[in-house]
């Protein structure tokens, strides 16, 4: 008679005998020790990225010649001097470093990115350093010079309608087994790699660099800017500066300079457009590369990197006024792109309206993000302005704003207030 215990044992033994015929999974033998292929490649890639960081050095600072405000320094950081030609060089470095460390980019990974041009060029530069294929998905309105600049670094360029960039980039990455970098959603994830802490290799954070440069300048009495002014496309740069300032308790006010038909002003001030689209409110041509409009809802971590919590103040400026400010800046010897015009106009407004320190100069730090020659055929071209800005008042409005800004440069008055009173607003008032 078989007891229940023996029956169970016999059954298990029978099953075990049946399993013997199946091949068992094999383990690597102990002891074993080796680097994975990906790990070895990644270590080399990261080493090359740090070599690039050493070569980046500091982009130069220069003071804007502000005749009408003799006790104010508007200090531009000239990011067009970066190795790939724009502010996005350090940003692309940080994004790719994050993607390497997190394992998103490995040997042979095809990288895809949606961009207005500058981030794509800088990522193309970085990917070429690592021999990684890169494809830029850009708006079909991109300036030819920007598209050629991307291709010069060995990248492919795919042109789509402005509102379709993120959708198409994600589709291509999925179809081809690549990685969609998504600067709009992942800038905050790359934030850690803007900073190096106490490690000997210096932080790539833009504001850290400004502070280091001001501290080293014996001619500069005020070492910490009272204001930092910048526009936003993804929102990554101004948010990284804002987080840096808040983290270290620096007494600098972070001012977002927003374009006329961008939703960022309302997004930051009132929490709007997180669950509603502002695409139908966008009026062309906008200011290329900055502002948020045609891409639908602003979802942090998906379609934008804007961190409203670290922004202290928002100023919205007319697009045609910012275009005129680009011309004023160029005539003063500093040729910059669309964001530079927005930044100058906002900085002059702040200088004219701020309560001045009693015992020191007022210091406003801002950026010249990319070179003006990218826009010679567009925002510096009167025929293009007349055609594209017709609804904004055309050349009559452009010339009026140019006159107002030039006069305020000499008088120190507020150009936004003066221009609002004097200049036509066209059909979009």
From TrEMBL:
The biological process GO terms on file are: cysteine biosynthetic process
* Domain Tryptophan synthase beta chain-like PALP residues, every copy: 58-364
Q: Cite the Pfam families for this sequence.
A: PALP (PF00291)
Superkingdom, according to UniProt? Eukaryota
Q: Which PANTHER family match?
A: CYSTATHIONINE BETA-SYNTHASE
What is the name of this protein? Pyridoxal phosphate-dependent enzyme domain containing protein
């Amino acid at each position: 008679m078989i007891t229940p215990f023996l029956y169970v044992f016999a059954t298990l033994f029978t099953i075990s005998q049946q399993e013997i015929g199946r091949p068992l999974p094999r383990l690597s033998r102990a002891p074993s020790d080796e680097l994975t292929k990906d790990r070895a490649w990644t270590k080399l890639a990261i080493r090359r990225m740090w070599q690039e960081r050493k070569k980046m050095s500091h982009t130069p600072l220069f003071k804007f010649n502000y005749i009408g405000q003799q006790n104010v320094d508007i200090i531009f950081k000239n990011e067009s001097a970066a190795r790939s030609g724009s502010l996005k060089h350090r940003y692309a470095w940080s994004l790719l470093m994050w993607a390497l460390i997190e394992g998103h980019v490995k040997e042979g990974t095809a990288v895809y990115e949606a961009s207005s041009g500058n981030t794509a060029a800088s990522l193309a530069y970085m990917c070429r350093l690592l021999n990684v294929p890169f494809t830029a998905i850009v708006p079909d309105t991109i300036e030819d010079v920007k598209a050629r600049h991307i291709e010069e670094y060995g990248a492919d360029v795919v042109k789509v309608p402005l509102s379709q960039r993120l959708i198409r980039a994600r589709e291509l990455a999925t179809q081809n087994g690549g990685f969609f970098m998504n600067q709009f959603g992942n800038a905050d994830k790359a934030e850690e790699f803007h900073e190096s802490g106490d490690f000997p290799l210096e932080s790539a954070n833009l504001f850290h660099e400004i502070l280091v440069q001001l501290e080293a300048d014996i001619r500069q009495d005020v070492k910490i800017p009272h204001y930092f002014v910048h526009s936003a496309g993804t929102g990554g740069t101004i948010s990284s500066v804002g987080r840096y300032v808040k983290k270290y308790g620096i007494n600098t006010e972070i001012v977002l300079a927003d374009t006329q038909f961008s939703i960022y002003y309302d997004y930051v001030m009132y929490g709007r457009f997180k669950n509603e689209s502002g695409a139908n409110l966008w009026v062309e041509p906008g200011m290329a590369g900055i502002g948020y409009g045609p891409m639908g809802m602003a979802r942090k971590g998906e379609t934008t990197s804007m961190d409203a919590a670290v922004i202290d103040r928002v100023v919205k400026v007319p697009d045609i006024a910012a275009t005129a400010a680009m011309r004023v800046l160029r005539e003063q010897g500093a040729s910059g792109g669309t964001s530079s015009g927005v930044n100058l106009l906002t900085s002059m407004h702040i200088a004219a309206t701020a309560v001045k320190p009693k015992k020191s100069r007022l210091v406003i730090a801002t950026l010249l993000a990319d070179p003006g020659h990218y826009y010679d055929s567009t925002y510096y071209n009167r025929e293009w302005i007349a055609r594209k800005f017709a609804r904004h008042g055309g050349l009559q409005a452009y010339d009026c704003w140019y006159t107002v800004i030039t006069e305020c440069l000499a008088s120190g008055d507020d150009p936004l207030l003066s221009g609002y009173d004097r200049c036509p607003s066209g059909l979009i008032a």
